[in-house]
Amino acid sequence: MFADYLPDSSRIPTAGLRVRPAELPDAPAVAEIYVRRDGGVLTEVTTAVRKEFHAIIEGRIERYVAVAELDGSVIGYGRCGWLSASEDGPAPAGWYLLGVVVGDFHRRRGAGQMLTVHRLDWIAAEGVREVFYFTSSNNRVSLELHADLGFV
């Protein structure tokens, strides 16, 4: 489920990589990346992603999705959104980074960091001064990525 942790691998930035807000036509590519990592039925996941994108566009949920694009193809995505205070634990209400996923062949080349910085910049532009993030303690790639950006 998590990317392999390869701390000594070179992080050669991918030339031409860009990050931008996701658009409705990106839904199939986002769904395909999701299914390759987490499994599921592609048509069902694509429908779910389209529903999420529509809900964002229509203002029914406070969320933002960005995609990483290389040579016209979506190679990764990252989400963030407002989460209410949890009744089941100590998590406060606020804006959260909700995950970043990069396709297998493009990992460890800067896309995850670019997606995360882009989402943090978007949240800051919305006037938010505090952002939360959570991950599994076993997800060493995510822990390192976020530590490099000042999360503890």
Low-pLDDT runs of 5+ residues are none
The mean pLDDT is: 88
- Overall geometry: globular
Biggest sheet, open or closed, and with what strands and sense? 5 strands, mixed
Strand order of the largest sheet: 1-2-3-4-5
Give the H and E element order.
EHHEEEHEH
Distance between the termini: 22 Å
Classify the beta-strand content into a percent band: 15-25%
Structure classification: alpha+beta
Q: Using only CA atoms, what is the Rg?
A: 15 Å
What's the number of helices? Answer: 4
Description:
- The chain is built from 4 helices and 5 strands, in the order E-H-H-E-E-E-H-E-H.
- With 152 residues, it is an alpha+beta fold.
- Strand 2 and strand 3 form a beta hairpin.
Describe the protein's topology.
Blueprint: E1 18-21, H1 27-38, H2 42-57, E2 63-70, E3 73-83, E4 94-102, H3 111-125, E5 131-133, H4 140-148
Parallel strand pairs: 4-5
Antiparallel strand pairs: 1-2, 2-3, 3-4
Write a concise synopsis of the structure shown.
By secondary structure, the protein is of the alpha+beta class.
Provide keyphrases for this structure.
alpha+beta, 5-stranded mixed sheet, 152 residues, 5 strands, globular
